[in-house]
# Entry
Amino acid sequence: MQKLAEICVRRPVFATMLILGLVVLGLDSYRKLGVDFFPKIEFPIVTVTTTLRGAAPEEVESQISKRIEEAVNTIAGIDDLSSLSAEGISIVTVQFVLEKDADVAAQEVRDKVNGILSQLPRDADLPIVEKVALDAAPVINVAVSSPRDLREITRIVDDRIKKNLESVSGVGQVRFVGDRTRQIQIWLDGDRLHAYNLNIDQVRAAIAAQNVEIPGGRIDQGPLELSVRTLGRVQSPRDFEQVIVAQAGGAPVRIRDIGYVVDGVVEPRSLARLDGAPAVVLEIRKQAGTNTLEVIGNVKRRIEELRPSLPPDFKITYSRDQSTFIQGSFEAVQRHLIEGGLFAALIVLLFMRNWRSTIIAAIAIPTSIISAFSLMKWMDFTLNQITMLALTLMVGVVIDDAIVVLENIYRFIEEKGMPPMRAAIEATRDIGLAVTATTFSLVIIFLPIAFMQGIIGRFMSSFGYTAAFAIMVSLLVSFTLTPMLCSRFLRTPPAGDGPKSKQTRLFRAIAGPYRKMLVWSLAHRKTVVALSVAVALSSIPLAIGIGKDFLPTDDQSQFEVSVRMPPGSSLAGSEEVMKQVEAELAQLPGVRNLLTTIGADIRRQVDRASVIVELVPIEQRRHTQQELMLMARERLQKFRDLVVSVQLPALIQGATRYDLQFYIQGPDLARLEEYSTVLMKRLSEVPGVTDLDSSYEPGKPEVQVRINRDKAADLGVSVASIATAVRTLVGGDEQVTTYREGDDRYDVQLRVSEEFRNSPDALERLFVPSAKLGNVPLSNVASLELTTGP
# Structure
């Protein structure tokens, strides 16, 4: 390094171009770096999602979850295997050890699941195997409200907004919440079905067979070829009423004779409201590994491009917008970085009392920091809280080498009377080994952070690399640019004046006490050692007493209130409850708007709701976000039947919202429920514990159809036909066929009218297919029991 310093002193253009090249690369890399809140991290977690519509949680567990668990449990490297079995859906989560490659893990799970597809129920959808991308969380919600009908809003939003946003760079998924999608519904009259001795299977088969469009081949006419196509599709929704189902007494029985057709919407399983007004929400998730700010910026730009083509009464509002918080955090750290560099230069000026020396030393800060951006781009890092923290911390470190070299050069000029060029060479050679040793000792401190194991290591890896590279660049600057600038810009003090820099009042004020303290320390070595040990040991109780958390709690100017209704709540019932919750939250000071969603989770649970509480900027309110969250908890305590949780919106996909979780395992579900109830009661008595909840939810009301197999066999009714008929008549066959209008296709649903399915007594009036009698009442082959389940 000393030889490099001599070359740079004698060849100033080489030194300038060397450092300038690093700076140019750094500036170009900075322009291309993404901005995010957290580094790009990936954990080997794979989920297997399987849908079995209408199945009870116990059936889902025994028929799907357990079989998938048994299949994937043989894969090497599994750290944790868990499953969630709910009504109609199974979610198996496979968490591997951190050393496992996520792509390999996903492929191994996929292979195992494919091997047991034949063992799953025939009417179950194919399992969806996917990696859990922690950075693929929803980044922004686009809420569209209008005085128009929700079905019309949904159609316009789907055609003009959603399809355009799906093609935006970086957008992974655009998901509807609160939408009302068009559906052609055929409502059957149970009594008329019985009067015409028709069963649901006949009706379904007739509708499917009389609404088809099948290619008929080709006709060759010499040089001309004609395609043959049979046009058998229904041309309008009302035409479904003309479909002939059967013959009775020589006359055709049409759909209009046993029911009626409605051009309606799919049964609502979600709802959205913006400040109390109905809305349609687009929940936008970014692709894994993409830049959050860039994706949100692209989405907003695309919406602004589409806005002129939208109806003038459409109001578009952004909610859960992460870009505001991330951009604010980044700008704050960026400001601190610049301020830190300026203050470091001012401190140097205060002690050196020479503006030339200050500029030479201060140049090391921007050159080292900017050059570090090239490594960050090369290693695919982003500008986030971790990397920016490393650069901010390095502001006071990267200038050290330059100060040591500069001070020694100035000392050679001042005390030995050497000319600046010779002093730059000799002084750098004199101090070179010490500077190198100091720099590498700092690198050894920060670089191991890049190789830390575990979850903390995944977050802090970029911190270690960024800090180490900035320090190494500062060493290069101190042996190249600093000696060259000293040789060209430092001035030799006038002869005979002596070493003036060490005769200033500031230097004497510091040097005198320091010299006395040093002499005393050398004379009382044991005392100094004892004091040092005592100081080191005192850090232990201080570390124990200080608060600990994985991440700091920042004011994001928004928080989320999650609400779980009593088991069995309907969408309409949940909506009425949430209106009361909204009224309480609207009274909080500093609230800008409230976005309420019901049934927005993947399972479309209508007894689950959440409210995104958007606050005005922190400088415009008197209360902090944490204080407002506490106020929200206090206001919502009056709702005794609700399970309420007030939390910050998750910035990491899949991250739990709870600080502490207890897992209770055992073979008896009833005993587990008993133990968990006792545990939650005791935890509620612990000061500071809030938002208690359990993953087991008992007491959901259900009607169980218990089949009398002997009677069913005598009457020629199979168990499968009973189950299929009940599911179609009550739950509805959501796609018995499709209706095409223009370029769009809509599902056609077959279902019995509401008066035949609004109570257990009404269900007994339904008829199921019989091979001997055509139809028999459900009450003849089964009994209905009102009970509860998980």
Notes: The CA atoms of residues 738 and 747 lie 5 Å apart. The mean pLDDT is 84. The first strand starts at residue 45 and ends at 51.
